[in-house]
């Protein structure tokens, strides 16, 4: 069974920031390519939710999966995956998730 997904407002903001930063630093083409890679990872999560590593020590019930330089932080719900954040690997995960 494939899960549906929902993206939080914070994760949508993260995506917007990632796209704009990538477009400014490299190109719009590269930003769009990276955006597609992130959504492919989200689709992979929806197909196999346990693919991500648990991060219960940081935030109970959360998992994360790396995509290039970013981490998709999500929670498995009832037939739905909640994408909480999409953060750069250099960010302090604990501080970002416990704001």
TrEMBL record:
InterPro entries: ParE1/4, RelE/ParE_toxin, RelE/ParE_toxin_dom_sf, TA_system_RelE-like_toxin. Keywords: Toxin-antitoxin system. The lineage of its organism: Bacteria, Pseudomonadati, Bacteroidota, Saprospiria, Saprospirales. Belongs to the RelE toxin family. It comes from Candidatus Opimibacter skivensis. This is Toxin. Pfam families: ParE_toxin. The keyword Protein transport does not apply.
């Amino acid at each position: 069974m494939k899960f549906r997904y929902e993206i939080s407002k914070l994760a949508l903001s993260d995506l917007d920031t990632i796209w704009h930063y990538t477009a400014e630093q490299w190109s719009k083409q590269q930003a769009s390519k990276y955006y597609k890679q992130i959504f492919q990872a989200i689709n992979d999560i929806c197909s196999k939710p346990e693919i991500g590593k648990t991060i219960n020590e940081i935030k109970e019930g959360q998992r994360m999966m790396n995509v290039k330089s970013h981490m998709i932080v999500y929670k498995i719900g009832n037939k739905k995956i909640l994408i909480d954040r999409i953060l750069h690997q250099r960010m302090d995960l604990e501080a970002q998730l416990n704001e």
